[in-house]
What we know:
The structure holds two protein chains of two kinds. By secondary structure, chain A is of the alpha/beta class. Helices cover about 45% and strands about 10% of the residues of chain A.
Amino acid sequence: MNTKTTVLGQTYQFRDLKEIFAKANEDKSGDQLAGIAASDSRERVAAKQVLADLTLADIRNNPMLPPEEDEVSRVIEEGINEKIYNEIKNWSVAELREYILSHNAGENDIKRISRGLSSEMIAATAKLMSNLDLITAAAKIRNVTHCNTAIGQPGVLAARVQPNHPSDNVQGIKAALYEGLSYGIGDAVIGINPVIDTADSVKDILTMTKEVMNKWEIPTQNCVLAHVTTQMRAIRQGAPADLIFQSLAGSEKGNNAFGIDVKLLDEADELMRKEGTSYGPNFWYFETGQGSELSSEAHFGIDQVTMESRCYGLARKYNPFIVNTVVGFIGPEYLYDSRQVIRAGLEDHYMGKLHGLPMGCDVCYTNHMKVDQNDMDNLGILLSAAGVNFVIGVAMADDVMLNYQSTSFHDIAAFREVLGLRPAPAFEKWLEKMGIMENGKLTARAGDPTIFM
Amino acid sequence: MEQQLDFLVDKVVAELQKKLSELGEKAPAQAVEQAVEKVVEASMQPGAQPSVEVNGAAAFQSDVSEEPERTAQIPNPQWKEGLDELLTSTPARIGVWRTGVRPLTKTMLQLRRDHAAAVDAVYGEVRQEVLDQFSLFTVETQYDNTENYLKRPDMGRILTDEGVRLLQERCQKKPQVQIVVSDGLSASAVDANLKDVLPSLLDSLKSYGLSCGTPFFVKGGRVASMDHIGEVLEPEVLVMLIGERPGLVTAHSMSAYMCYRPRKGMVESERTVISNIHRQGTSPVEAGAHIGTILSKMLEQKASGVKLVL
């Protein structure tokens, strides 16, 4: 394995794979905080140059976090198709990048190859891609999933309606839900982040959303994003859950900080097979985001792009209905400004898609980041062009419970209108029946939540 | 971890608010304490999920007088009275209407205005007269500048050598109670709340017969800077009044982090916190009194955080 190169007259000798991977990243405050980022542009390009010439076998044979020490590594390792891997193991990362982007590689070819790739190999290609490379590659891949309804088809941009309330007031949640539905938002999921993490509270919200879905015959799915154990308790008590949610980290230690492990996820998976209310076969909702491993000191000196990719390696075991990178929630010590958030959003979307996952993105920011709503407009349009499965809809982008800004109902309607995208087919039919949409356009009736009262 | 603790207390506030709306009456102080205890216990169990900051409990009331009246903009709603009902049930920005697929100008400007207030809180500075009012002198952490403060939380946890020297020179050593004020992520939280929190805290300490060291202000402070201060001054208990991450509903929310015998290597579960201190949340005057009570219990039980029984 060659770890040495010369750039602009200066020779660089890298220690190991971790150092090459970290320094090949585009600039991120989280990698700086971890003390592993490239010191300047020249060192960054040197690392990229070394990475480009590594073979896929080099990456697999020098594990950054060995399977013996980490169960996420084991899940990733066990998921690799050996036949496919053996066909491509002598490819360099540069060759893999060019294959993915080439006209010779169609969607099915890429999907087949991806079964022979580890999360680290996928992360490696992302480090050699420009923003437009990430968009071009992701746009080739559509990962369609089905829970009660299907999303992810070409030409479809779905959305989660996120009607959170600062004290879980059921009427208040309903009010924001009606507003969202009236803008054609909610085909991915009706998903609520609860303030109170108890089974009773989760059950109340699931029951209310299910009642609304039944009353208006809305073709979608519901979910309350409490801790997985709380949801499991609620489901055992008879709560109607179409989807089960959990945040994931890219290492066993990181997952322990979230209060989960593979065994618990397996248990929840089993429970959903038996007691979930949806058609399936996909009934998981996962959330991820760069930096969470560093924040729980569970990154093992590995950069945040690679750790994020490992989350997708874990997610893929469970064939989720939706996966969402909550890209700008974590704060400026991991993603400092709009440039870093936009880059991370495109990286995550691409890496998830290449894992075969139904990727969505919470295009978002907190108030102590150097980001504003204009940056969200930009990232939203870029991801919509890249074929993102879904984005998040919050009333005027302002989440009054989580205290951050995402994309608004108006924004999603605009992404659809500007790029000629449509809601999920079953949902669009329902919108037409309700008189909210006609020929893919909002009608004069759209935007009035009282039509659901 | 700071966020995690913020979350705990914000969760308490939310739970309380839910209880209040169920009871339809004001909760007695006891209920507050019970709820704090319950949530802190539940969330400190191994495996509790680090989660997000929740800070919207007071969202129903308008923030400041300049807040425009919240009226629905929908020209011909199917059910006019129903619309009012929806609006009163949530602080979310609903009933806003649209032009094509874009928001109306007024709605868009309101969002930008609220964001500007939040950003100002992060990049603003505490007014000197607020500090002068309580004769607080200023020490700095190694944060250097706001950009660095945001990127390097570790540097906001260590005082400069000059700061340490100032503390040694001007502060009473080994006080029973040490009060520290810091801008944190919202300078305007200090501007807005200190004048109410601090006098009521001092009164409360007096009523418990507790003595207080020399209070001061830390510029560019993170919560864990209390550990370094603890090493230098060795107080029995320390309370840090610090600005929270600003939201759009309010940019002036403050937290009080309390610790028994703060020192290097403290873990978050050893700190006790009251958050959401602002006019529409936990009222600053009540918070001051409540902090006094908690500090006296810490001294009694020689413990803080999860080990403290409230």
